[in-house]
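May I ask for a sample protein chain and its fold as tokens?
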Amino acid sequence: MASQPPSTNPSRVIPLTCSGHTRPVVHLQFSPITDGTYYLISACKDGNPMLRDGPTGDWIGTFLGHKGAVWSAKLSKDASKAITASADFTAKLWDTYTGEALHSFTHGHIVRSADISGDGTRIVSGGQEKKLRIYDLNKPEEPIAETEGHESTIKSVIWDSERNVVLSAGDDKEIRVWDLRSFSEVNSFKTEYPITSMELSADGKYITSTAGKVVHFLDASTYQVSKSIPTAYDVSSVSLHTDHKRFVAGGDLWVRIYDFESGKELATLCNAEVYKGHHGPIHTVSYSPDGEIYATGSEDGTIRLWQTTPGKSYGLWQNKASKDEKENDVNGILPE
């Protein structure tokens, strides 16, 4: 049995709970701020990715069409499109305004991750075929580029438009960097354990990844290690705050907040009995683009939104906790 987390004031650590999924939530991503707001998309093993208002968690819509678990879901830079990767051997492109599937990209096996270019014209996908594919959305029937290089399942792909590269990582314990002009491998980073997650920080400065009990931060310009921080548990996901002073990591039943400079654990949250948190292991974490909140997705099928600064008025938090410390279900029960 896991040990009890450090004691804090639970009345100040009450998240908003986003219900609706029926199976484990495995990937979350916030969009950049667009027209004064931002959005949150979730991937779930129930096969129904969902779009939500970022600051409040309010449900906007569900993308219907996949016939298997959805392993990743990402939004375009302007949040007008979404790309999802699924166990049904497809990646799908969605119109986020209408919920319509714009195109389905057929693969030969499970697709674990997909991403969309900064200008919204191309996508990259990867999965159990160990291949990377690039598609042009103006002629999406066949990939315009395809390469093999990984020795096992690709778990994460990133389109880095600023540097004109694609990043891929997975079970072969290696992050690979691919030049988009030649689509050849130009750099790599090896880890001791299979890579369970990889993301680009909101400002594009760091590549964050998790492998075994270690969190890695790579300089996104040089692909050299800026920092590797060991943890006491198998970490599943990590997200760096916009101020680069802290990061959040998930893996077991609790979410842990760390100081970025020292690697010291600052707080432990998410025990269901004490902190109104999750009832299952946490698979994915993500900070909002303004750094005011972070989202966690769990084996228990819920998403929870947590304040970076508990007690601050923001979104549905109005600078007071409910007297009975009940959770706020943002699918219909809002704070008074």
Notes: The helical segments are 272-275.
